[in-house]
Design a protein that fits this description.
This protein is α/β, with parallel strands linked by helices. About 45% of the residues lie in helices and about 15% in strands. A six-stranded parallel β-sheet has the order 3-4-2-1-5-6, sandwiched between helices. Helix 2 runs parallel beside helix 3 and helix 3 packs parallel to helix 4. The radius of gyration is 18 Å and the shape is globular. The protein binds farnesyl diphosphate.
Length: about 240
């Protein structure tokens, strides 16, 4: 069976720095343009009536970037949330953050919590933003959750299966991504949603994230529509 449209798209937004360098500008400019692209893509995905979108905004490994760049990214996340939350809310977007919030600033954590709270009853696009996220952390965290569940008598050890472990993951209540898009030319997964993408279709493009637009997005959808998904079976 050919696929018409993905239900869940996940995106690794890569190439902000290289794009800025190509424009003879500093990396900050690339990240700012990247945030505008993210805004545009949320609109496009929403208007295509796709139900779930997960954006990889900051990985666990990104903490290893120069302090100045980490600082400016954090500032950009706070500002983007401040500036965009009302419009997202009025567009019926339900927002959730996935990742390890512990090391994020109190200010950013508060903004994230507030965004989740005010959009909780929205019924349009489910927008998941991965911030300080790493899939290995996610899986480990889920395993710890399962162990606690067993210890507290809420889970029977014999009943633990893939579905139960999945339900403890950060995206436990979302369907697995149907399509993963990575911009920026690299063909790797970079510790993103490792468990969830077991059967996801992968679309890699050379275009740098700030220049990803409706045309590139429709190329990805077109690629997806031609894939024959067998989920490991032969038919
Ligand atoms: C990759 O570019 C992008 C990031 C490190 C994440 C930052 C993403 C944004 C600012 C987009 C905004 C998203 C939201 C949800 C506000 P890079 O620095 O790795 O580029 P390079 O590979 O060219 O150096």
């Amino acid at each position: 069976m050919k696929n018409i449209k993905p239900d869940h798209i996940a995106i690794i937004m890569d190439g902000n720095g290289r794009w800025a360098c190509g424009q003879k500008r500093i990396r900050r400019y690339g990240h700012e343009q990247g945030a505008l692209t993210a805004k545009n893509i949320v609109k496009i995905v929403s208007s295509n009536k796709i139900k779930h979108l997960t954006l990889y905004a900051f990985s666990s490994e990104n903490w290893g970037r120069p302090t100045q760049e980490v600082k400016l990214l954090m500032k950009l996340f706070v500002e983007t949330l401040e500036n965009e939350i009302d419009e997202l809310n009025s567009n019926n977007v339900k927002m959730r953050f996935i990742g390890d919030r512990e090391n994020l600033s109190k200010k950013l954590q508060d903004k994230m919590q507030n965004a989740e709270k005010i959009t909780i009853d929205n019924t349009g696009l489910n927008l998941y933003v991965a911030l300080a996220y790493g899939a290995r952390w996610d899986i480990l965290n889920a395993i710890k959750g399962v162990i606690t569940g067993v210890k507290e008598g809420k889970l029977d050890k014999q009943e633990i299966d893939e579905n139960i472990l999945s339900s403890y993951l950060q995206l436990g209540d979302a369907p697995d991504p149907d399509l993963l898009i990575r911009t920026g030319g690299e063909k790797r997964i970079s510790n993103f949603l490792l468990w969830n993408i077991a059967y996801t279709e992968l679309f890699f493009c050379d275009c740098l994230w700030p220049e990803f637009n409706e045309k590139e997005f429709s190329n990805a959808l077109n690629f997806y529509s031609k894939r024959k998904r067998r989920f490991g079976s032969s038919v």
